Amino acid sequence: MKRSFCFLILFLTLNCKYLTTEAQKIEKTLPNMSAEELFKKGNEAMEAKKYKIAKLYFKFIYENFPSSPYAVDALIKTATSSYLDGGWEELLDAKQKFGDFYNRYPQNENAEYALYMQGIISLKLKEKPTRDQINTMAALSYFNRYIQIYPQGKYIEEVYEGIEECNNNLALKELEVAKFYFKRKAYKGALQRLDFIVKTYPNFKEMFRVYFYYSKIYEILGDLEKKDYYYKKYEETLDILGKKL
Q1: Model's pTM, two decimal places?
Q2: 244: exposed, middle or buried (C-beta count within 10 Å: 0-12, 13-18, 19+)?
Q3: Phi, psi of 216 (to 5 degrees)
Q4: Number of folded domains in the chain?
Q5: Looking at the domain assignment, is residue 199 inside a domain?
Q6: Can you tell me the distance from the alpha carbon of 241 to that of 17, in angstroms, rounded to the nearest whole number?
Q7: How far apart, in whole angstroms, are the C-alpha atoms of residue 175 and residue 181?
Q8: pLDDT attached to residue 20
């Protein structure tokens, strides 16, 4: 196991070194190429899934050939290269580039894609349920804007799916707050949070947990009728989901 791990580290180190060396060689050739040649090379690198290399070509175009007919497409491809490359920093860079594209070229045919991707990336950057849902809220904002502007857009199904995931994340956050109040015996505050989840996020995928805490709280408060009511809903929801707490 230890040997395999060491081999993996060595492989990643050598691969990273190779990519760095390759990138350095390519960077020296960039000033000698035309925008058309750079764009062709960038597309070839994309097809080969060498996203860091592709980004070098496309970024050089929009930074050094702003009036070129390839400049606009180079910017969106730079953003896509960063996104496909993966990694936290790359996702942040991709989101910034997609935002830059959308703000500069709102009437471009790729503006729809740029807006959609800002939502997708924000969702990928989502926080844990115990943290403030800054990126989740950002994703929800992008998706809602997409629906307003492109109600029949090509990504509309994915956008609705993204909204559902956003709402689920927000419901999880509210549930964490309810659990916080429950542990501190602040039952009124816990019930208010549970009520909010039921009213605001009726399609919450883990609603059985909400019913479970309802039941526990009402049992503690001595309201056995409500305790039994919510425990029954808890069991019914578990039967539907096939889950156990």
Answers
A1: 0.85
A2: exposed
A3: -65, -45
A4: 1
A5: no
A6: 48
A7: 10
A8: 64
Q: What are phi and psi of 151, to 5 degrees?
A: -60, -25
The closest of 30, 103, 45 to 78, measured between CA atoms, is: 45
Per-residue pLDDT, averaged over 204-211, amounts to: 96
Sign (positive/negative) of CA torsion 214, 220, 222, 224? positive
Q: Is residue 7 part of a domain?
A: no
Sequence-separated (6 or more) residues with CB below 8 Å from residue 105: 72, 111
Asked whether the beta carbons of 22 and 54 are under 8 A apart, the reply is no
Q: Please, which residues have CB within 8 angstroms of residue 77's CB and are 6 or more apart in sequence?
A: 42, 43, 46, 54, 58
More confident residue, 27 or 194: 194
pLDDT of residue 14: 40
CA 118/CA 126 separation, integer angstroms: 12
Residue 68 structure tokens: 């070129």
Q: What is the CATH number of the domain that holds 53?
A: 1.25.40.10
Q: Is residue 212 part of a domain?
A: no
User: Is residue 37 included in any domain, yes or no?
Assistant: yes
Domain around 92: 22-108
Work out the mean pLDDT of the chain and round it to a whole number: 91
